[in-house]
Request: fold
Amino acid sequence: MSGLYLSRGLFPQEFLRPTIDFILNCQQDSGEIPWFDGGYTDPWDHTESAMGLAIGGELQAARKAYRWLAKLQLPDGSWWASYRGEEVDNPQRRESNFVAYVATGLWHYYLISGERDFLQEMWPTVERAIGFALSLQTSHGEIHWAVDAQGNAKEDALVTGCSSIYKSLECAYNIAYTLDQPRPEWLLARDRLGTALRHKPERFDRTWETKARYSMDWFYPVLAGVFPQAEAKARLAERWDEFVKPGMGCLCVTDQPWVTVAESCELVMALLAAGDHARAVEVYSWLHQWRTSDGSYWTGYQMVEDLLWPDEKPTWTAGAILLAADALTEYTPAAKLFCSVELLSSENQQRRKVVD
Reply:
C-alpha cells in the first residue's frame, strides 16, 4: 500500500494497530525488544521500539522495556553495543549515543503517560547514562563516539551520534527539572555540543573517511534541533535531490541505490522541524509500499536489483513508522518531541520553546 496521507488529528489507529502488535509480539517476557525474533538487541533501537509501544498505548510493555535497560546498565552508566537476552552480544564497544538515548525515550514516555513515579524510578538510570556520555565530551564540545572493550575512548566523533546526544541532553535536562534534580551543567554541555555541531566541522570524522554520504549526517542535526528553522530548511533543501527518490523514500547513502524506511521516517520528522509540512506528508505517504501483511516494514528497497534488502523487518523500523505518524497527526502529547526544541524554564516554571 502507498498513498497514506496523514493530517493533524487523524491518527490511523486501525491501520497502525498491526504495527504496534508486531513490536509487542517481538518483545520478550523480560522486556527486551530485539531487532526481530532471533535477532540481537541494541540500546538505541530497543528504545526506539519502546517509544512506538508508548504511542500505541502499550504503556506497561514500554515500562518493561525501560526496566530491562535499567537492569543491564553497567556501573559506569553505559551498555554494551548489543545483547541477546542478558548475554552481551558485542563486548567490543559501548557507544555514547546509544547510552544517552534512554533519556529521550523516558521523556517521551513521560510526555505521553504523565507517570512521574516511573520517571522517578528511572532517574538513576538517566543520571548515570548522561554521566557516561558527558565523560566523553572534549574541550572542543564534541563527544567521542564510543569506548573500547577496556573502556578507552575511541577518539573521534560522529555528526549523527552527537546530534542524537544533543536531543538526549534536552530530554535529560527536562527530566531533571521535572524531578527537582537541577542539572544546569547538562545544559552547558549541550550548548558546547551544539556549538561544535554548528561551527566546528573539523572535529568530526577526523580519523576516518567523511560520513557526509550518509543521509543521517544530512538530516539528523535538523531532527535533533541543532539549527533554527530557517537554517534547518536551507540545510534540507541543499542536498534534497541527492538523497530523496520521489515515490520511494530517502537513500541511506548517496552512492548506493537503497532507500530505507527508518531514515525516511526520520526525514519526515526533520521536515516538520524545518516547517515543511507538505513534503513531510508526501514522503510519509510513499513508505507503506514496504509494509507487510502483519504490519511490519522491510528495512529498505534496492532500486537497481529490484529487491527488498536486507531480508529483515526490524522492530525499530516499526517504531520509526509510529513516531512519524504521531508527529504528523499530533496524536499524543509527545508528538512534537522531534519537531521542536523545548526546555523547561527555571525562570517561570513553564515549558518554553527554545530556538538555538
